[in-house]
Amino acid sequence: xxRNFNWLCYVFLVLTITFYNNALAETTEFLTHxxxxxxxxxxxxxxRGLKHGGRRAFNVELVREMMLLVDHQVQFQIVPFARGQLAxxxxxxxxxxxxxxxxxxxxxxxxxxxxxxxxxFYESVNQSKPVTDFDQAKNVSGICVLRGTxxxxxxxALGFKNIFANNxxxxxxxxxxxxxxxxxxxxxSLVNTLMVEAHxxxxxxxxxxVMVQKNAGYIAFSKxxxxxxxxxxxxxxxxxxxxxxxxxxxxxxxH
Length: 255
Hints:
Blueprint: H1 2-25, E1 29-32, E2 39-41, E3 47-49, H2 55-69, E4 76-78, H3 81-87, E5 93-99, E6 109-124, H4 134-138, E7 143-146, H5 150-157, E8 163-166, H6 169-177, E9 184-187, H7 188-198, E10 205-221, H8 227-243, H9 245-254
Parallel strand pairs: 1-4, 1-5, 7-8
Antiparallel strand pairs: 2-3, 5-10, 6-9, 6-10
């Protein structure tokens, strides 16, 4: 009798561990980046976007709504962008916001777009010869970009030899205003926020007519996620867009 009881306890323990491990296996760790000053921790210990905090705040709120729809734990980890990309090589990871480029296409599984906007070159108002096309941009002394971003990758792929990689868009803009570099490619949805952080005004820098690229932001999932899981996350995003909730988030956080 005791042997049977012990056997049943053993079976129960194995099933419990198996169930627990399976539950863990279905949990994805969501990583985000560059959200300093755009988010806060609420009374429930959750990361939330600040109202009218721009793209970073909007993305956190949008992904949070997606998590609620798929019944996923609402939890984020803030990491540097480059570290987030490295983390995607591990299992059960997801990183947002990240541009879906040709170079990255086969590395991850994708859900999005979360939002789409344009990237233009910015220059100092003291630039003696305003930049009006790509050929001119290729011949300036230096273009500052955030290391590892789609702007960085795309400009290198286009043959630009004058790229200076930095760890901060704010630092790039400050160097631009001081005349230490010539151009910075910034997206429309980020420029105003970055200008405030850099303590700059449009009396110091200006937007050129040269559009560098269109940025479509996505969630990149590590390759171990099943296609069914990816479809579930995509359906959650699509549902938010159809329901009007997406437009509500745009008004409350993106603008």
